[in-house]
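Quick one, tokens below. Sequence please?
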């Protein structure tokens, strides 16, 4: 049987990106067959190598992979290269000359300052595709600002509409780093590769993370522009649904989410509660009435859910065609969720003397292969392959680069 080719096989990516949003882009290409070469330096250790719990260090003093790094960089090759050394810049250019895509999520102007900006790269590879992901883009008053996903979601206003009413706003997770920014950047690079295949021309891609994330504000900006309304945190409630929320069930910290959007669903919900006459109760007979009496409605729903386990609530409501789902923990996903285990969302990979777990590919193709096959690299794990193999450097040249801290 002929082995299926991976969809991005034959593409080489030089990945300067670090932390989270940028490395996710390289990870996608690596998982689908591209050769992705991750550039690092011990002079400025990637934050994701050291969390949670600080850097993992072997008895020999070698920096290993933190949990974040394992997940964001599986299937990549890893090399060390000191970009503050002139030889490091020249070697980077040689590698880029035999590659297709260069990615980074540094602050605006950094790559230009060290001699690796787009205008420099097209001199060594005219049809190179370069992706940059500056937080606020290359223009505007904040163009020189650095930042992380937690700051971006504050800057776009996402934190202002998140959380419960009358409480401090905010989220405890960096949503832009995992959602819009790597997704939009990946699509942009794929589009540029398609364009190059048709025209032979490369492109420079500017993905402003602020702008990319604004789409998550939904109609908030439009609502203010047209209606002058400033949206406030709504908790789990929605204007077009009731009941809609997360309701306490029996057991410690046990909850089930329920959402009713139509009158048919409302009648089915009342039937599931064993109280069909509730559907015509004057307090709740229409969506408008249910919204007007939502506190009372939520209390009524929670009196019913509190007498059952979250799994019982979900099964009863789903059997009546009502949208509901238990609030699952990490333990639930691994030990109780059959759908999770069926899809093999996490894969187990050899890691040192133990094992590493990372997210599996989320897109499947009928005629091409895709898989996560290798744990994230150690610092400089593939130096010999890249420098000696791909670039043809001699053993003496490689040793000298180590001596001069070029491969630091």
């Amino acid at each position: 049987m002929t082995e299926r080719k991976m969809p991005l096989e034959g593409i080489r990516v030089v990945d300067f990106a670090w932390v989270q949003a940028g490395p996710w882009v390289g990870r996608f290409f690596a998982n689908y067959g591209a050769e992705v070469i991750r550039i690092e330096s011990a002079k400025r250790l990637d934050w994701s190598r050291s969390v949670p719990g600080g850097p993992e260090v072997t008895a020999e003093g070698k920096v290993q992979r933190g949990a974040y790094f394992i997940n964001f960089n599986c299937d990549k090759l890893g090399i060390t290269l000191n970009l503050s050394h002139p030889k490091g810049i020249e070697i980077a250019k040689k590698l880029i000359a035999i590659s297709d895509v260069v990615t980074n999520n540094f602050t605006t102007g950094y790559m230009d300052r060290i001699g690796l900006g787009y205008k420099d790269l097209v001199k060594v590879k005219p049809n190179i595709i370069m992706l940059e992901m500056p937080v606020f883009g290359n223009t505007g008053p904040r163009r020189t600002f650095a930042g992380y996903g937690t700051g971006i979601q504050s800057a776009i206003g996402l934190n202002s509409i998140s959380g419960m009413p009358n409480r401090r706003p905010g989220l405890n997770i960096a949503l832009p780093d995992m959602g819009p920014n790597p997704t939009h950047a990946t699509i942009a690079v794929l589009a540029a590769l398609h364009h190059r295949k048709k025209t032979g021309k490369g492109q420079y891609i500017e993905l402003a993370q602020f702008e990319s994330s604004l789409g998550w504000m939904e109609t908030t900006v439009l609502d203010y522009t047209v209606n002058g309304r400033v949206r406030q945190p709504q908790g789990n409630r929605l204007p077009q649904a009731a009941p809609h929320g997360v309701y306490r069930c029996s057991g410690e910290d046990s909850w089930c989410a329920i959402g009713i959007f139509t009158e048919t669903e409302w009648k089915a919900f009342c039937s599931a509660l064993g109280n069909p006459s509730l559907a015509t109760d004057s307090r709740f007979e229409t969506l408008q009435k249910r919204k007007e009496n939502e506190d009372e409605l939520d209390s009524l729903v929670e009196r019913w859910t509190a007498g059952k386990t979250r799994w019982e609530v979900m099964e009863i409501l789903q059997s009546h065609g009502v949208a509901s789902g238990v609030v699952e923990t990490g333990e639930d996903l691994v030990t109780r969720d059959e759908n999770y285990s069926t899809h093999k969302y996490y894969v187990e990979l050899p890691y040192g003397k133990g094992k590493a777990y990372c997210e599996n590919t989320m897109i499947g193709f009928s005629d091409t292969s895709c898989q996560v096959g290798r744990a994230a690299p150690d610092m400089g794990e593939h130096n010999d392959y890249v420098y000696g193999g791909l670039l043809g450097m001699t053993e003496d040249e490689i040793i000298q680069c180590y001596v001069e801290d070029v491969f630091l």
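Residues 212 and 394 are 44 Å apart (CA to CA). The domain at 244-335 is CATH 3.30.1540.10 (formyl-coa transferase, domain 3).
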